[in-house]
Design brief:
The chain has helices spanning 9-38, 46-75, 77-95, 101-129, 135-156, 161-175, 186-191, 208-219, 222-232, 235-242, 250-274, 279-296, 304-317, 321-330, 334-365, 370-391. It is an all-alpha fold. The protein has a single domain, classed as Up-down Bundle (Growth Hormone, Chain: A). Helix 1 (9-38) runs antiparallel to helix 4, helix 5 (135-156) runs antiparallel to helix 11 (250-274) and helix 8 (208-219) packs antiparallel against helix 16. The two termini are 36 Å apart. The model has no long low-confidence stretch (mean pLDDT 91).
Length: 405
């Protein structure tokens, strides 16, 4: 297979768009608290305000996922791909100028709203324009190149949060120059002559089979944000509890996790094409996740280098994100595909809120220690995801040129 068969204009633009998407998401996690301090938020209010901004951003992503998903099925994949890039890029630039918490809150909502559309639109477009036997390679590149944005965000954050925001916004705006040569999906054009309902979110729940399939598409992604949001997000707390020798930094853990995720995405995408199955690859990576978590929760008294190596391994183990979004795009017809592919990853991201509530209930209300609470939440997550994976049909090589009625 020739590299030019995969690296077409649609793959390049979708990958770079997702790169800036991840860059912004991770950048805020890294510089959020520092930026709040610099705009005058009292030190004892930093954590609370940071969490509020995260919540507002998540609301924006959930609403943006619905809006851009429906728009993608009604007006086209390209309208969403570039519309979302413009939205979050301008918001990114504006973030660098904030001087008060009210403006910051509004801009994080706008950024979240815009960030919600890029990945789903990109994956939908790539899935529809590539050969059914090779589209896994295309979505693999979109996801793996995209998540390197987290590593770059960690490096760029060292030059100051305002400059980091400006760079992210500038990168996004520059992507618009690549619009030349990117063409709308032929499958989408064919639906325009069809009277079937397009982008109807409630149609996903019009029959039991379709509703369960949609819900299962979301649930198979739960382990990703359980590991990133809890195990990696709280890595300094885990390090302290486990007696790790050395100082664990949030930013370093995030960079190492996403570095591992890049290689995991490459492997999962390649492997799914080699063995001609998405579901088998999911199972292999779930097993790797469970083993990695087991190691992580038993790192008593290790040095920081070994601890960081396991963080990298955790990131690698959730490298099925590439085929996760691919599976979502392959499960439904052209008239609902963008709606599904855009909303599913955003609902998975939103699931972190529920997981954190459960985690806090176990640690604060039931007074379980950090390790025990994590093990219980993890067991619930993987039980749900494995059951959901079992009931989803295999989609490798599936013909996507059809509509839902």
């Amino acid at each position: 297979m020739k590299i030019k068969e995969i690296l077409n204009a649609s793959v390049v633009v979708a990958a770079l768009g997702y790169f800036v998407d991840v860059y912004d998401l991770v950048l805020f996690l890294i510089v959020g608290k520092k930026s709040l301090l610099d705009i005058g938020v009292a030190p004892d209010q930093i954590v609370e305000q940071f969490q509020n901004l995260l919540n507002v951003q998540m609301i924006g992503m959930l609403l943006g996922g619905l809006f851009f998903g429906i728009l993608g099925d009604k007006k086209g994949r390209l309208s969403v791909l570039f519309g979302s890039i413009v939205t979050y890029s301008l918001a990114n630039i504006a973030n660098g100028f904030v001087t008060n918490i009210e403006t910051y809150t509004l801009l994080r909502f706008v950024a979240g709203f815009g960030l919600a559309g890029e990945l789903g639109a990109g994956i939908t477009l790539v899935s529809e324009v590539m050969d059914k036997e090779k589209r896994g390679y295309g979505t693999m590149l979109v996801a793996s190149i995209g998540v390197t944005g987290a590593v770059v965000a960690g490096l760029v954050s060292q030059i100051g949060w305002q400059n980091a925001y400006f760079i992210g916004g500038g990168l996004g705006i520059s992507l618009l120059l690549l619009r030349i040569g990117v063409f709308e999906s032929g499958m989408f054009h064919k639906t325009q002559a069809d009277t079937v309902s397009k982008g109807n979110f409630f149609m996903l729940f019009s029959n039991k089979e379709r509703a369960l399939k949609y819900i299962n598409c979301i649930l198979i992604g739960l382990p990703v944000w359980f590991i990133i949001g809890i195990l990696v997000g709280l890595s300094p707390s885990f390090a302290k509890t486990l007696g790790v020798i050395g100082t664990v930094q949030d930013a370093t853990s995030v960079m190492l996790c996403y570095s591992g995720l890049v290689f995991g995405d490459l492997l999962s995408g390649w492997l799914s094409n080699q063995i001609r199955s998405r579901k088998k690859v999911f199972f292999y990576f779930y097993l790797m996740c469970i083993l990695s978590i087991g190691v992580y929760l038993n790192l008593n008294g290790v040095d920081i280098l070994f601890f960081n190596a396991v963080i990298f391994l955790l990131g690698f183990s959730v490298g099925f994100w590439a085929i996760f979004v691919t599976v979502a795009s392959e499960q439904f017809g052209t008239n609902l595909r963008a709606t599904v592919t855009t909303t599913v990853p955003n609902f998975v991201r939103g699931s972190l809120v529920i997981l954190v509530i459960l985690f806090k209930y176990l640690t604060k209300t039931l007074s379980l220690d950090l390790i025990a609470a994590t093990a219980i939440v993890g067991a619930i997550v993987f039980a749900i995801s494995l059951a959901s994976l079992y009931f989803l049909p295999e989609t490798f090589g599936k013909d996507l040129d059809y509509v839902e009625k």
